[in-house]
Amino acid sequence: MSVISEENARGGDHSVFKDISADDENQQPTEIESLCMNCHQNGTTRLLLTRIPFFKEIIVSSFSCPACSWSNTEIQSAGQIQEQGICYTLRIRTKQDLNREVVKADSATTRIPELDFEIPPFTQKGSLSTVEGLLDRAVSGLEQEQPARRAAEPELAHKIEQFILKLKKLKDVEQEFTLVIEDPSGNSFVENPSAPHRDEALTVTRFNRTAQQDGQLGIRADDDDLDEEPAGNDVETMKSEVLVFNTNCPECSAPASTNMKLVDIPHFKEVIIMATNCDSCGHRTNEVKSGGATEALGTRITLHVTDPSDMTRDLLKSETCCVLIPELEFELGMGALGGKFTTLEGLLKDIKDLIVVKNPFICGDSSTEDRLQKLTQFGEKIDQIVAGEMKIHVILDDPAGNSYLQNVYAPEEDPEMTVEKYTRTFEQNEDLGLNDMKTEGYQEEK
To answer: Which among 20, 85, 337, 345 would be 20 to 30 A from 47, CA to CA?
Structure first.
């Protein structure tokens, strides 16, 4: 490392790290005589300081010993630990994807969800390879102890042999599979052949490290505090950042990511917005949860829609909210459409899609001319409302009190909107599961 420091002092960063290229004859490694840890004779270590385009600087080191023929190759990041961790999710669809360059740091976790296969962090040295190279390295690691296993545990050796065959078969890419590289240090990398444009097969997400991950990386001093998160900062962190966590698509079960954000709605309360987007099948879904408890009173919000600008009002519809439009004799029951944070126009379009577009009874053998005509007329009326050609009343009736409609005159009263608080009936409490909920004295015997 003294060679690197001396070069940095003389020429600076740009003279030391050069873009990686197979055609650059001037990009020669630095050779250093080193001790072989296998036979304790002198060997040669070659250091190459290079820069990967659209990524960062790395140090590639290779050791070889002429006495015992032992060799070793690894990579190290030449930069610092990043502020956030990084997770690459790559869909392997063709054999060309196997040629993508991959920088895998020591701290990275490698997963193939389709095989329930995982390489934990700090179990392998960092490497500069390809996707195919990662698979070959995993196969070599599993095959290394197979002779001993066959002698001591034949059944285990047979199971591992079958798994090795599955790993080798992945290189034929007969079916799509997923490669996930999650690195809390943020120093791993998967090549994007389309850079700087977006890669449809590659998803890159960044995340905040946990206290345990900080401890593993050696950037947290007190081991006693590893299991403790800073008190009082969780809510503020959620308000200022979008949290991302891995999940599975509800449609195709492929790995996907869900974004979660805590939003403080003025003159209302805090709500949690969650959105999931699947890159495999294109399925998208969003959901809204109240950030607080069930209110003591129900809420009924009535808006008289008189102007097209009303369509831009923000609207929060919880899962327990009913939507009524008296002029259309329409009522959307509790639970339909789920929780949504949208605009009034967005809600009306979702209602149209639910009743008209996605209705299974308007096509095929289930369709009748009379029903089709009524649903078509309903869709046309919704379009008239959105265009401001029809005045109506929209009522949001939420027994839990967790729905909201924007008051554009706030903090003054809105002349076109009324908000009523009411006491829930026994049936409404039963629907919300409140009648059987006992939070005080529940340990006492009757």
So the answer is: 85
